[in-house]
Specification:
Number of strands: 4
Strand content: 5-15%
Radius of gyration: 19 Å
Structural class: alpha+beta
Oligomer: single chain
CATH topology: Alpha-Beta Plaits
Shape: globular
Number of helices: 11
CATH superfamily: Transposase IS200-like
CATH class: Alpha Beta
């Protein structure tokens, strides 16, 4: 089955997952993490993409961003990925591919899911049992969004700015978002949308995406529904 084209909409937030090929490690040491972030910053500036949140795991990366142009995300990921592979192969004496051929992505309804995706991304190391709290992991945007560390790569989303009047207020309100566990329904919605390329949001948002792109933003109804007794009866009337 042919893949649906990715959804790219300027000004609309997007969640991206970039995985190592065959789930292999794409970061070996501290220098690798720093190099990835440096290359990402340069590519984001060049292609006018605002990075809001990130986490660099051992064998994959999560990014939350807003592109300024339709091709911004695709071009940024291609340029950054290519540059990092060159660095990684040279540094570690290897050859060949490093990333999966296609990164996964979804457009995000800011009003419904944006801060939830911020949290989903930065809690990844906790879910992976690498740390007990997001604050303990050095390679995520939690260090800036919640703790105030200066990270030039990041551009706060307007909804993050609305968390408070001052930086201290915003960081405090942001930390409060991380109390308690994430609902399973949110985890499932984010994972399914990003993995399959569907829009992440409510019906209104999905209708807007379809109107703008002409592309289905959500899966079709299951065939079993059409074969149900209620469906057959409605067609016979």
């Amino acid at each position: 089955m042919a893949r649906l084209p990715r959804l790219y909409i300027p000004g609309c937030a997007q969640h991206v997952i970039q995985r190592g090929n065959n789930r292999e490690a794409c970061f070996y040491d501290e220098g690798d993490y720093k190099a990835y972030l440096s290359f990402l910053k340069n590519a984001a500036i060049k292609y006018q993409v605002a990075i809001h949140a990130y986490v660099l795991m051992t064998n994959h990366v999560h990014l939350l961003m807003t592109p300024g142009s339709e091709q911004g995300v695709s071009r940024m990921m291609q340029a950054q990925g290519r540059r990092y592979v060159q660095y990684f192969n040279f540094t570690h004496g290897r050859t060949g591919t490093l990333w999966e051929r296609r990164f996964k992505s979804t457009v995000v309804d800011a009003d419904s899911y944006l801060l939830t995706v911020y949290r989903y991304i930065e809690v990844n190391p906790v879910r992976a049992a690498m740390v007990t709290h997001a604050s303990e992991y050095p390679w995520s945007s939690y260090q800036s969004n919640a703790l105030g560390k200066a990270i030039e790569l990041l551009t706060p989303h307007r909804l993050y700015h609305q968390l408070g009047i001052t930086d201290v207020e915003r960081q405090s309100a942001y930390r409060a978002l991380f109390r308690g566990g994430m609902p399973d329904r949110d985890l499932e919605a984010i994972r399914e949308a990003t993995s399959k390329g569907w829009a992440l949001g409510d019906d209104r948002f999905k209708a807007q995406i379809e109107a703008k792109t002409g592309r289905r933003p959500a899966p079709l109804g299951r065939g079993g529904d059409r074969k149900s007794m209620a469906f057959r009866e409605s067609k016979s009337q």
